[in-house]
Every structure is written in C-alpha cells, then in structure tokens.
Amino acid sequence: MELNIDATNTKRILVLHGPNLNLLGTREPEIYGSLTLNAINEKLRERAKELGVDEIEFLQSNFEGALVEAIQKARGRYDFIILNAAALTHYSIALRDAIAAVPVPVIEVHLSNIHKREEFRHKSVISPVVLGQICGFGVDSYIAALEIATRKLQRDSK
Ligand code: DQA
C-alpha cells in the first residue's frame, strides 16, 4: 500500500522551557508538583504520538538568549511553539520581541496559576504576542496546549 504523505499536513512542535524548570521535581513541589522535566516531556511525547504529531522537540534553558535564538530558528522549522518562559514571562522584552518577529504561533503555558500568586507574576509581557495563555493546571497546561495546537493545525490544513 502506498503511503500518501502530505507535506503540508505535517505537524512539528517545539516545546521551550525557561529558567529553573530543569529543577522541577525538587523545586517548590507544593507549587510546581513533583514531576521532573523529563517526566513532563515524556508525557508530551506520548500524547503527541497519540495525536499524530510528526515531530516534537524540547529545549530547556536558563539563558534568555538561548530561548530567543530558539524562537528565531523556529521559523520554517516548526508549526507551533509551546512556551513556558518561567520568570522571563514577567520581564523579558527580548523574548516578547522574538515571538512578535517570527510567524510561528506560540501558546504560553505555566504550571501554576500566575494570577493568584505574587503580584509581580500577574503580568506577562509575552501574553500580548501569543495566541493564548494556559496556566494553573500543572502538566495538563502543557498537554492542553499540545491538543489545541494539534487541533488548530488540523483545521488549518483543511
Ligand atoms: C512558571 C511561573 C513563573 O512565575 C515562575 O517564575 C516559573 C514557573 C510556572 O510554570 O508556573 O519559573 O512559569
């Protein structure tokens, strides 16, 4: 049987994790839960497979510039970015400008509900340039973002 692979229909997703998310599992588990970053990535990989995502890649960095570069390089390479910018969410204009400069849609995610925490976390400087924000559901914030991204890509390819 011939496999009919439609190149316009491929789904490639980049998941970016910002500063200190490499410490998940031991970092303030009462706020961020007990899953490690690897465990979160594994859950995303499994769900991506079920959803028929062709490619899902992960990058965690504690450096703003590395995340800016990853967003710049995503142009033409990925169809969607799922971004937990961590603390950079609240002050990184460089990250915001990178998102605005690149035509790859971004979904902002947070494990915790940033709106019911300290006041300095209520503001996201990236929210105005992303498709939407999902926060407060732990790993399910990421899973929901993946499901929404996939659904959107399916709709847009029709
Ligand atoms: C976070 C929330 C941020 O305020 C914080 O700086 C993080 C993690 C979250 O996933 O809940 O590092 O993005």
Give a brief description:
The chain has a domain at 37-70 and 89-158: Rossmann fold. The protein is 35% helix and 16% strand. The chain has helices at 29-32, 37-50, 64-73, 93-101, 139-156, and strands at 12-17, 55-60, 80-84, 106-110, 132-135.
Protein architecture, described:
- With 158 residues, the chain is α/β, with parallel strands linked by helices.
- The chain is globular and about 45 Å long.
- Mean pLDDT is 94; it is low at 1-7.
- The protein has helices at residues 29-32, 37-50, 64-73, 93-101, 139-156; strands at 12-17, 55-60, 80-84, 106-110, 132-135.
- The chain has a domain at 37-70 and 89-158: 3-Layer(aba) Sandwich (Rossmann fold), CATH 3.40.50.
- 1,3,4-trihydroxy-5-OXO-cyclohexanecarboxylic acid (DQA) binds at residues 20, 84, 86-87, 89, 110-112, 114, 121.
- 1,3,4-trihydroxy-5-OXO-cyclohexanecarboxylic acid (DQA) is lined by residues 20, 84, 86-87, 89, 110-112, 114, 121.
Our measurement of the CA-to-CA distance between the termini, rounded to an integer number of angstroms, reads 24 Å
SSE topology string: EHHEHEHEEH
Average pLDDT value? 94
Strand content: 15-25%
Strand order across the largest sheet: 2-1-3-4-5
CA-based shape: globular
Per CATH, which architecture of the domain at 37-70 and 89-158?
3-Layer(aba) Sandwich
Which structural class do the helices and strands define? Answer: alpha/beta
Identify the bound ligands.
1,3,4-trihydroxy-5-OXO-cyclohexanecarboxylic acid
The CATH superfamily of the domain at 37-70 and 89-158 is: Dehydroquinase, class II
**CATH-assigned fold name of the domain at 37-70 and 89-158:** Rossmann fold
Computed Rg: 15 Å
